[in-house]
Amino acid sequence: MMSAVFAAHREQHAPDEAIAELWGRLGELGLVRLTGSEESGGSGAGWPEAVELLRAAAWHGVKIPLAEHDLLACWLLETAGLEIDDARRTAAVLDADGVARGVPWAADSERVVLLWRDGSGGRVADVDTTSLAVTAGHNNAGEPRDDIRASLAALSGNPVPATVVEQFMQRAAMVRAVQVCAALDRILELSVAHARERIQFGRPLAKFQAVQNLVADIAAESALARAATDGALAEALRSGWSSSHLYFLVAVARSCAGHAASVVVRNAHQVHGAIGTTLEHRLHEFTMPALSWRSEYGSVAHWDQMLTEYATAAGTEGLWALATATDN
Known about the structure:
alpha+beta; 9 helices; globular; flavoprotein; FAD
C-alpha cells in the first residue's frame, strides 16, 4: 500500500510537486503520524512500519517530511507531554545562541518543535514557524534545509531529561541511514536494469566483465550499509533506544552508509554513462539524495571519528568485545 501511494503520485508529479495533496492522502491512510500513540491521534505503529514507509518514499524519489514530522517532531511533543494537532511539523536542536542550521523543511512547516539543552537536561517547545527568523536554503538534492533563529529568553518549553536530547540525535541519524540505504538499493536496481537493457558493441553492457564488477561493487556496498543499519535499528528497538552500545552501532551504520554512497554513486554513473547525468534520467533522483543525506545529522568524517575514538578506547584487547557485544 505504501509503495502504491508513492508510485501513483510519481506517475503524475515530479518529486517535489503536489506535496500538500500527497500529505492529505497519507493523512487519510493514517501514515502521517504512523508511530504516534492512538491516544494522541496517531496510528499506534512502530519503527519497523515507519522504516518501510521511509524506504518506500525514498525508493520512489518522493520528497516529503514524514520522518521529520512523525519520528522526530511529534515524538518530541509526546515525550515532553505537549499537545499535538494536525499541523505539519519539523524539529530542530538549538545551540546556545538559539540558532539551528540546515533544519529540514522549516519554511514549509506550520510549526517547529524546538529542542535545546538547559542545565543538566533539555527543554522542548512547539512554536509557530512565523515566530521564528527563517532563512530558506536547500541541500544538494533540492530538499528544503533552512536556518532558523529563536529567542531562548522568550521560550519556556517543557523540561525533558538529557537522554531525550541524546536519543533525538540517534533517531535523526538512524532516519538518514535508512533513507540512504533505500536510495542505494534503488540505484542498484536502476544499474542492473540499465546494464541488461543497454546494447553496446552488439551485446548488453551486462556481458562486459568491467561492468559486472562495477555492479557487483554497488550490490556489495549497498548490502553492507543495509546490514549495518538494520543491526543498529534492531538493537535500538530491542533496548528501547537505551542500549549502552547503541551510539557505537549508529556510528557503524552511518559510517558504512556514508562510504557506501561514494562507491555506489560513482559506479552507477560509470555504468549509466552520459545518460545518467541528464535531468531526463531518474538516476539523479537517488544519487543526489544519497550524497546529501549521508552528511546530515553528522558527516561521514564525524562518524568515522566516533568509531576511531571507540576503537582507541577499547584497545587491542577490547576491540572484538566492542564489535560483538550487546546489552542483555
